[in-house]
Design a protein that fits this description.
Length: 249
């Protein structure tokens, strides 16, 4: 099945669909010879930052995380991440979570057109829980769990489900015809990037045809639903704030 009526960028108070048609590059001090698209951040109303970074052989990204945690996922290509005396190969599907307080990181030695997706958020410390150490892995090594008892819906949790982590990053794969079983409305917000396939996303009372290369921000309580279209699986990677909801004021 071929579907061509893909949606264009829409930015609303409660959500944004960013399809890349309006991207303008941003300069990040310490990052050179790369293209940085700030897809979602506080200026939009979000409580985190999501960036798409395109690198090549002369790119060099140097920085420190300070009060934020920094999640990096390689969408395509390859590059090398250096933190202190450790080196990590980033190839399609690799990811790294850098804790707050990481003094010096460097990303370089990238292949042409390497694409990295990043999620950054100010880390919320808990009194009795220590901050996790750097965490890394590859999506191929993470098992796909059946989501809400529907074998059409496969969920991969890239980060451990432990109180030390206040963000979750998951890859959600829908087999052809799969859809969320209900319209979700929840306090957590999302930043999402399509990795493959296509489908219809409901955001508030609006419906969009979305697919590979599109990004979505969903504010807390934005009603959301997704149904996959086409004859190949549909997958997106998404951020969610977790583990820090309090009833104390
Ligand atoms: O984890 C979630 O809230 C997820 N099911 N939301 C979504 O895919 N829009
Ligand atoms: Mn959700």
């Amino acid at each position: 099945m071929k579907l061509t009526a893909r949606s264009q960028t829409v930015v609303k108070q409660n959500y944004a669909l960013i399809t890349g048609d309006g991207f303008v590059n941003s300069v990040v001090p310490g990052w050179s010879n790369c293209v940085v698209n700030v897809v979602i951040n506080e200026a939009m109303g979000a409580d985190f930052c999501q960036q798409l970074v395109t690198l090549g052989p002369t790119s060099s990204l140097k920085g420190s995380t300070q009060v934020s945690e920094f999640f990096i996922y390689a969408i395509e290509g390859q590059a090398q991440l250096q933190v202190e005396d450790q080196s990590y190969a980033l190839k399609a599907g690799s990811y790294v979570w850098l804790p707050p307080g990481t003094a010096n990181y460097t990303i370089d030695s990238a292949a042409e057109n390497t694409q990295l997706l990043t999620f950054q958020k100010v880390y919320e410390e808990l009194e009795d829980i220590s901050i996790p150490a750097l965490y890394h892995g590859h999506a191929d090594d993470i098992q796909q769990d059946i989501y809400l008892e529907d074998p059409q819906l496969l969920m991969q949790n890239l980060l451990p489900y432990e109180l030390g982590f206040d963000m979750a990053v998951n890859i959600f794969t829908y087999l052809p015809g799969g859809n969320l079983p209900f319209v979700e409305t929840h306090v957590m917000e999302h930043g999402l990037t399509y990795l493959s396939g296509q489908g219809i996303y409901r955001l508030d009372d609006d419906w969009y045809h979305v697919g590979k290369g599109d990004h979505i921000w969903m504010a807390p309580y934005c009603p959301q639903w997704f149904g996959a279209l086409g004859d190949s699986p549909s997958a997106y990677i998404y951020y969610k704030n977790v583990n820090r909801f309090s009833i104390e004021q």
